[in-house]
Amino acid sequence: MMDMGYGDYQLEAAVSKIHASEAAWYVCDEAIQILGGMGYMRETGLEKILRDIRIFRIFEGTNDVMRLFVALTGLQYAGGHLKELQRAMNNPVANLGVIFGAGTKRFARTVGLSSGPSLSEYVAPQLRDNAALVSKSIQNFGASVEHLLIKYNKNIINEQMLQRRLADAAIDIYASVV
After folding, report:
1. Greater pLDDT, 47 or 115
2. CB half-sphere exposure, 94, CA atoms < 13 A
3. Is the pLDDT of residue 35 over 90?
4. For residues 173 and 19, is the Cβ–Cβ distance under 8 A?
5. Where, if anywhere, are coiled coils annotated (predicted)?
6. What digits encode the pLDDT tens for the residues 99-151?
7. Contact in structure between 18 and 70 (CB atoms under 8 Å)
C-alpha cells in the first residue's frame, strides 16, 4: 500500500511487523531444533540470534497489542458496512439496490458460489489455483467477521481470543498475497 502512494499504511505495517518478527523467531527456533544440542553452542551463533530476535516481537508495539489493532481496525471497517446495510433496511424502497446486492451476496455464499472478487485474473496462469484458494479464504474470512459482528455486536471488543484468531487469519491471508 505504501508502495502505491497510500498515506495510511498503519495496518499494513502492523501486519508486516507481526508476520516478519514471528517468522524470524520460528526460523531461528527451527534451526536450533534441527541442530539439537548443538543449537545452543556459541559456534553456531544461533543462541545470540535467538536472543536478538526476541526483542523484535516487543519493539514498536508488542505483537499481542498489534494483533488487537489489526483485529479491531478490521472489525470497525466491516461494522461500517453492516451499519450501511442496516440504514438501507430502514428505507428499503429507496435502497433496493443495496439490499438486493447484499442479499445476492449472502445467497451466493450460502449455496457455495463465489460472492467476492477473484484474484485469479491478476496472477500468472501457474498460480491460478492458489489464487482461487486465497480468494475463497478471503470470502470465508469476510463471512466469519460478519457472523461475529452480528453475534457479538459491540461486545466483540471483549472477545480478545476471537480478535486474536481474526488477526492471525488476516495476517496469514495478507502474507499469502504479498
Report:
1. 47
2. 5
3. yes
4. no
5. none
6. 667 667 766 666 666 666 788 888 999 999 999 999 989 989 998 998 999 89
7. yes
Torsion angle of the four alpha carbons 58, 62, 64, 66, in this order, in degrees rounded to the nearest 10: -140
Closest CA to 121 of 102, 135, 108: 135
Which entry of 12, 43, 47, 60 is annotated as an active-site residue? Answer: 60
Q: Domain spans of the chain?
A: 1-61, 62-178
Q: Phi, psi at residue 7, to the nearest 5°? A: -85, -25
Residues in the chain: 178
Helices 63-90 + 128-152 axis angle, to 10? 70
Distance CA 99, CA 127 (A): 35
Domain 62-178, architecture per CATH: Up-down Bundle (1.20)
Q: Of 44, 67, 52, 87, nearest to 170 (Cα)?
A: 67
pLDDT higher than 70, residue 95: no
Spatial separation of the C-alpha atoms in residues 139 and 116, rounded to whole Å: 6
* Three-class SS state of 62: coil
Reply yes or no on whether the pLDDT at 69 is more than 70. yes
Residue 39: predicted pLDDT: 86
- DSSP labels, 84-146: HHHHHHHSTTTTHHHHHHHHHHHHHHHTT---S--SGGGS-GGGHHHHHHHHHHHHHHHHHHH
